[in-house]
Amino acid sequence: MENIIEAVIFDLDGVITNTSESHFRAWQRLANEEGIPFTRADNERLRGVSRRQSLEILLAGRSISEEDAEVWMARKNCYYLKEIAALTPKDLLPGVASLLTELQAAGIKIAIASASRNALAVIARLRIKDQLDFCADGSSVERQKPAPDLYLYTARQLGVRPAQCLVVEDAAAGIEAAHAAGMITVGLGPSAQVATADSVFPHLDGVQLKDLSNAATWRVSEAIFKPQHQHHHETILSIGNGYLGTRGAFEERYPGDRQATLVHGIWDDTPICFTELANAPDWTAIEIRV
Ligand code: B16
Ligand code: MG
Is the separation of the CB atoms in 111 and 157 below 8 Å? Predict the structure, then answer.
């Protein structure tokens, strides 16, 4: 059973600092120049998604050449870099500095996993690099959020199992990515945006390690399948509701497994040295075909 968080992985934009506003202004400038309507509400859909995908959302079905797409993205990035040039440690969102200090003191690893290719520049300006054990950015992996790759890559670099990583995110794509990676999730912001997170807070102001830990209810997991331990894991991975229980054997079966479904209070009456629950029919073998 695990309930221990060994690492906290923060998204950057919208979690550590409010660069989402700078992304918005940079995209909006490009959109204005190109005569494309782009509102603050549209910008919400850009949270946590890559630069390329952001451009596609902005284009909303309009088609431009690949060459123009590259030029447009470079222009937007140029506007964005101007925006972030003035960032200082004062731009850390409320609650971030004290939470980083608390996590560090508790010996919990800290990482940032951002879809932004500018993440390292932002981190340098915020002067938090020394508090981080690792930072993954938009060039660390090929497939961006909502694919789990960036978070899995970060966990590998930290040397922590995904189930013991807690991710703090402000975007639906990021929560989806972290869940797909098998991590515990804390969502920030309007709950509709991050509703699927294990816990949701409006912001990090006042949030402490104990509050993050509440998101990590216990879970039972088997990291590596070892045939010699299969009976033990079948037992601890049993599911039941107090009346009917099924051992956690593989549905597709495995040599030597001990599949069993047992019903509370229904006993074998075979005279053996101790009374046993009777084996009920194996429902896991049922196949439903449409
Ligand atoms: P860049 P995060 C994301 O950062 C932003 O939320 C998203 O709006 C942006 O398009 C993306 O980074 C790529 O950023 O153009 O700088 O490479 O939330 O994952 O920290
Ligand atoms: Mg974000």
Answer: yes
